[in-house]
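Reading a protein record of the kind used here takes only a little practice. Think of the row as the fold of the chain written in a discrete alphabet. A record is reproduced here so that you can trace the correspondence yourselves:
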Amino acid sequence: MPTINSFIRFLHASPGTPAVDIYTDGNLAVKNLAYNELSEYLVTGPEDMHIQLFSAGETENPLLDTTLTIPPSEAITAAIIGTLPDISLLPIFVNVVPRDNDDALIRFTNLSPALTDADLAIEDGATLFSNVGYTQVTDYEIIAPGSYTLRLRNAQGDDSVLASGSIEIEPRTAYTVYAIGLTEDEPPLQIGFYSDLIPNISNQVKETVFRKDTSFGSQAPRINLFYE
């Protein structure tokens, strides 16, 4: 019989918001989650989860006090989005099914409150996603495994590159690429991503691993997030 347990993790994508402690149903679940960091998965049953965000180390005056409905048998990344005092949670569901080949999948979500519409393209290659509005999450598209450099552009602008980032696409893995940050302020606009194994009968939830690429030239530093 399939499990009804679900899994939830949190991505801090709110520029200018300090590191947060996250309480679920009154219990400290995630401690000191900094901007552009991803928590490990928490196991939960289907429920209406009461979620409170506090500045790290604080227990009064929550930055966010909300309820998120957790369906059964789901894996969810809850992105903390917006800028203070107007922040919220955007639930991003994995929405992938077992596959019988080594295809990889990629999708894009615009988490930058300063970017109305965005295009994501491969360097010197095809545009993967066009006119993606703020908080929109695209469907997955098939992509061949390999190394890619991605370019983020303003869909309504002059096609200039706003941010760039590299990604190593592994077989049988689903990737969510996201735009984060601000276009004319700090922190700067960046591309990040996290990944999930495409499920099969032997998959298990594993520890979240972070790898940060801090080498950069004229472009803003990028932080690449992996889930393995």
